[in-house]
Write a structure and sequence with these properties.
It is built from 19 helices and 20 strands. It has a 14-stranded parallel beta sheet, covered by helices on one side. Strands 1-4 form a two-stranded antiparallel sheet. Strands 2-3 form a two-stranded antiparallel sheet. By secondary structure, it is α/β, with parallel strands linked by helices. One of its GO terms (cellular component) is SCF ubiquitin ligase complex.
Length: 511
Amino acid sequence: MGQASSSSSSSSCSCSLSCNHHEISKQIDGRSSIIITKKHNATTSFQDLTLSLPDECLATIFCKLSCHDRNSCSLVCKRWKLIDSNSRHRLVLLSPFEMSSSLPCLLSRFSSLTILSLKCSRKLLSIDDLSFSRIPVFLPSLIKLKLKGCIDISDDGLLAFSLNHPLLLSKISFASCGFGARGLNSLLTNCPSLHHLTLKRLRKLDAHNTPLFFDTDDDNDAAGNNRRTHLRIERLCLKDLHNARIFIPLLSASAQALKTLIVCRSSAISSTCPQLQVLQLSRTTDCTDDGLSAIATSCRSSLRKLHVDAWSRFGGRTIGDDGVLTVAAQCLRLQELVLMGVPISGSSLTVLASNCRTLERLALCNTESVGDSEMGIIAAKFNALKKLCIKNCPISQSGIEAIGGGCPNLVKLKVKRCRGISEASVRKLRMQRTSVVVSVDTGSMVFSGQRMTITQEEEEAEQQQQNRSIRTPNTAAATTAAAHVVCSSRSALFLRSRLENALQISRRRPN
């Protein structure tokens, strides 16, 4: 669209163009509007159609554009630049040290920002404390702040930032930064609207023993009581933080308000969170059945969602059937349960079905203890279940048939990486329960024709291998005739075709 220097008070503007072409006109809304004037040494005028659009409409259009197109539009004229500045609410910036001098000017342009993300490579110097501390001055409407890799922002910078009292700041995410507990404590004290806190890979925080949200020894201290009153952390995420003791005061102070606790490769769990509704434990090697039982006892009236990933690189599992049994006995309002790498027994499933009558979503993954008998218990006793996910468990056709005859409220069944499921059983389930969405990866199913073909190849390969071993008794290792690949369907078919071709080539080679 043709755009020149525009004014909101005028509906048209004029300019002088000198070209060696002809004049081009276009009929728009019953009026002849000259878009481009191309007459030699002629002075004509054209109409800017965007002047009739209100600022709100242009702002909506800008929100639909990509970042590159939006940046280009902001350079068209002063009006578009102003509209773009006022309508931007989210900004992601690379923040090396060279950005420190230009950051205040840039933030003053986008004063309506509500979400700011600053990222920097840990191999480079990041923005300094002075530039970071002035962010609340330029962004009074800031709601969410995310820092990643800003290792040169120290406790002093975080303290200066918090002393500007960002009243609306409610969500904070810090990952791989260089400050510790002193700066975080000042932030917790001076940000009254803080509700969501995410801390990831803060090495300085792990290295010191200064607790978060440290109160004075005097319980009657007015400042300490005030801090305990306004601290309302509802969602806390801890990742790759292993100094558990420093989080105990924070968890205790926000126990009444905490609703979501996410712990990934960390060791900080508190048993004093009675209002906790969502708990996610991922690879917490220091959490045992006792810790899970303490959480279940404390949150028995509020816990709605529980995710436990007990997978360990070294094969050790610290959470087992006893912890699940305690959860089943205590958390009666549980609606979603995800267990990964947790050996659960049939007795725990029975208690879970009898006590947690509102359980609607169940996922059992990466465990050898869930077989056809456990699938029968799920089908017979989990009447409220709507979504069921079974992944990498030793179930067969009998388990699928049991689900088809039970779980009356089931709407979706997802089976992944479960070898032993036949194509016929899946087809029968889909015909039997037409209202259930059945999702089975092709790599998990065993097709009858393919099974016969593979069996014949295995017999031929085994016979040839025996003949070779008789002729050459000093042969090193036997060649594998078939390979069971656990992966996605496309990858399984691709690898199997490659292995079959290699096997055929090896057969054709002379001895």
